[in-house]
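Pair request: fold both.
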Amino acid sequence: MRYRQLPGTPLQVSEIGFGVWTVSTSWWGVKEESVRERLLKRALEMGINFFDTADTYGNGEGESVLTRFLKAQREKMVIATKFGYDFYHHTRQEGHEELPQDFSPKYIRFALEESLKRLATDRIDLYQLHNCRIDAIQRDDTFAELEKLKKEGKIRAFGVALGPAIAPRQAEEGRAAIEKRRVNTVQIIYNLLEQMLGEPVFAPARRLESGVLVRVPHASGLLDGTVTRETVFGKEDHRYHRVSSAERKRLWQEEGLKKVEQLGFLTEKTGRTLSQAALKFILREPSITSVFPNIYNEKLLEEFAAAPDTLDLTDTEFDRVQVLVAHNFGLAPASAG
């Protein structure tokens, strides 16, 4: 495993992190307690020390699961969690629609104390606004409160996680968070197939020394071999909306796999799998601090954890990928990625 510095702190975090949503929500299917325990413990053994969760994952389960299995290892871990969705006073009615958000100082302090209890710790290493919009980033009282919490030692750094899905507005949000709020990190969805938020966020992050965290690095399964043409998603799976009609299925699943078929050059005589090449593609960017692939079995965990030590992409490989992306892999009309 290789490590990079979490900006604004002395902390070294693993290039491959663990997105705890896969073992704490019903969106990905890892429900067995024994599997959750094995994955978390094995990840730490393999050098993954950066765990990204949120208070709303499983209504607190995303934090509690770390305490159940890794409490004795707290000093070896760097914990990032998120706040903003008020699941304490509201419940989801159906599907995966968003809950009301609250970024007021009073709610931030309340949510933080609840997270500290669930995590059985006295500080959060990275505290992130969860899927915030520009209005939250523009709130002076929100960031004044976060600065207070840093001075009190309750958090070591703060950032924003943009979402829930990729949207053009997030380029503005990412820039504002870095340039106006000087956040330690911005978390985005970014991968070889979905690069909308790349340079608009990378450029200010490089200039002002913020870090970028990346989730969904395998395009929701297209780049790690877990999605095939035969894959069917249940309504409980967050990817269901991408294939909820024949046209959506064509644009995302079928065209996405046609793109993947053109990436064989990334694995030929390189010793890396496509999923590892997809991670190396992201880690090539110097402003990126860590990547959170979706880990839901031991095979994927071991494959992802080994990725940093595989061959770096050559300039020729990288440029060839970008030519394909620029021309939509020769597919028309342009797909949803």
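--- second member of the pair ---
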Amino acid sequence: MSNAPTAGGYRGRLAPSPTGWLHLGHARTFWTATWRAMNHGGALVLRVEDLDGPRCRPEFVAGIEEDLRWLGIRWQEGPDVGGDFGPYVQSQRLSLYRAAFDRLRARGHVYACTCSRRDVAAALSAPHAGDEEPVYPGTCRDRGIDPGTRVPTARAAVWRFRVPDGESVMVRDAGMGDQTLVAGVDFGDFVVWRGDDLPSYQLACVVDDHHMDITEVVRGADLLVSAARQLLLFRALGWESPGYFHCPLMLDEAGRRLAKRHDALSLRRLREQGVEPADLIRGWG
């Protein structure tokens, strides 16, 4: 299973979710993605990942573009400039996700699951993969649940990817070095189609990276486990996978990774305080 950039020319991407203002952690990762695209003489794509329901707001989309431009980042393709691989907003790409899901279903890679998050967390056999959600214990894997079954939360059953038992997945990472993750230890059967009839992050990301010809994914180290899941999806769908470069996380004074709740460290707030982009970038060198 290859996950190295192809010879067709470097294509990187910025894939923010418009659920809040960008913070310093986003900025450093996006700057790294920009630097790697420039260093390879390649193209950079801006993709808006807006499948997170009502948390995604138009003002955050506009704010993302404004903040990135302030930082000095430019992209060759995106919602505002167009390109050959659009649309560049996930909510406008649902037919592509459905086609990929149908392909997985036809090949027997997925199954319906009625377990809630509470059910998974309560399972005594479910180990925790660091800060990730508990590893799914396989409760519904062989139950043959009708996919139209409703669960107590009044949503439809979700669909999970059937991870090969004991599978070891090698993530060849240009930032962190080769990383091996093991099914049942680091991750388990994961959701690919949600109960609200939308694709999960894992599936949407794979479909977009494939159809946009992305050759390298640059993102935070907290998504390393997602790389293993996504590599399995690429293989199941019969697609070439991109390369990966996971960046160290930026932490606050308490040692916690930065999140959108850290408004004081948002790019918008820093701009208001007179901070210049060069001041930030100099600190990342």
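Observation on the second member. The chain has one domain: 11-284.
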